[in-house]
């Protein structure tokens, strides 16, 4: 039986490249939206979901944190994937022929120095893999696309320049999610992700966080966002180092429970070596 991993975007998207890198034995299933990715796993059409949660340049991916708690899925792995941007064009086209490139809005500023050096204008597209697909169908020799090497491979385009991004640190963190949790694995460093809402009492967040400090648990991420459009109900998303079965983590989570109205663990998984 073919094992599938669902991702959001067109074939050749960076999420597709992440699937190939992190799950090389799986067939990647493209989906129109993040909701469709989650639905594909819940229905059994795919076994796993590849969901981007944050980028080192642009911060968290909009709306993902709201979707995760209600998805019914569980985090079983994380993957840190470098975002390499390549300039591609129709076969046989030379870089001197290109005057315009199409790409997702966030990619164009990342290649500003390269584009300026070659006198190329960037125009925003809905997504970069889609821009590559459109270019392959268009036959336009003066147009290029900024996308992944995988997109060039899929759509039969020539890569004119590889890794043209201005900064070498651009990395996206993905979460790999499944229908069932897996708490059996152990590695040198484990990550536990959870969401919670604090009680409406003075200093509730301060008190809730105190248990992690006193028990020596390192919290690597804490983000807040509104719930259901309310300015008074705030939900927090957190990553900590450790496993819920570790004595110090168990004590910290137990103390957290005293000051929260809702606490849900989304997954416990090995830390990516590139973390």
UniProtKB/TrEMBL annotation:
Among the entry's GO cellular component annotations, what is one? cytoplasm
Biological processes, Gene Ontology terms: L-phenylalanine biosynthetic process
Q: In which pathway does it act?
A: Amino-acid biosynthesis; L-phenylalanine biosynthesis; phenylpyruvate from prephenate: step 1/1
Keyword list, A-Z? Amino-acid biosynthesis, Aromatic amino acid biosynthesis, Lyase, Phenylalanine biosynthesis
PROSITE patterns, sorted: ACT, PREPHENATE_DEHYDR_1, PREPHENATE_DEHYDR_3
Tagged with keyword Hydrolase: no
Question: Which residue range or ranges hold the Prephenate dehydratase domain?
Answer: 4-179
InterPro entries from the entry?
Answer: ACT-like_dom_sf (IPR045865), ACT_dom (IPR002912), Preph_deHydtase (IPR001086), Preph_deHydtase_CS (IPR018528)
Question: Sorted alphabetically, which PANTHER family does this protein's record hold?
Answer: PREPHENATE DEHYDRATASE P PROTEIN (PTHR21022), PREPHENATE DEHYDRATASE-RELATED (PTHR21022:SF19)
This chain belongs to the protein called prephenate dehydratase
Which species is listed as the source? Answer: Marinibacterium profundimaris
């Amino acid at each position: 039986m073919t094992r599938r991993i669902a991702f959001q975007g067109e074939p050749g998207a960076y999420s597709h490249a992440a699937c190939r890198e992190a799950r090389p034995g799986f067939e990647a299933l493209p989906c129109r939206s993040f909701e469709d990715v989650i639905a594909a796993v819940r229905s059994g059409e795919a076994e796993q979901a590849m969901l981007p949660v944050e980028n080192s340049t642009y911060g968290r991916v909009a709306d993902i944190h709201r979707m995760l708690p209600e998805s019914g899925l569980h985090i079983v792995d994380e993957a840190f994937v470098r975002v390499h941007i390549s300039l591609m064009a129709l076969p046989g086209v030379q870089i001197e022929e290109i005057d315009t490139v199409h790409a997702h809005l966030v990619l164009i500023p990342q290649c500003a120095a390269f584009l300026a050096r070659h006198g190329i204008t960037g125009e925003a597209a809905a997504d970069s893999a889609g821009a590559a697909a459109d270019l392959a169908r268009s036959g336009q020799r003066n147009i290029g696309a900024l996308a992944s090497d995988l997109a060039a491979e899929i759509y039969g385009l020539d890569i004119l320049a590889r890794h043209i991004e201005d900064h070498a640190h651009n990395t996206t963190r993905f979460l790999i999610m499944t229908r069932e949790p897996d708490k059996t694995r152990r590695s040198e460093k484990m990550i536990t992700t959870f969401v919670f809402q604090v009680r409406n009492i003075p200093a509730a967040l301060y008190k809730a966080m105190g248990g992690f400090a006193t028990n020596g648990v390192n919290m690597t991420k804490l983000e807040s966002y509104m719930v259901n459009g309310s300015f008074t109900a705030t939900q927090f998303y957190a990553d900590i180092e450790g496993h819920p079965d570790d004595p110090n983590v168990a004590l910290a989570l137990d103390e957290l429970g005293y000051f929260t109205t809702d606490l849900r663990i989304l997954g416990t998984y090995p830390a990516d070596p590139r973390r």
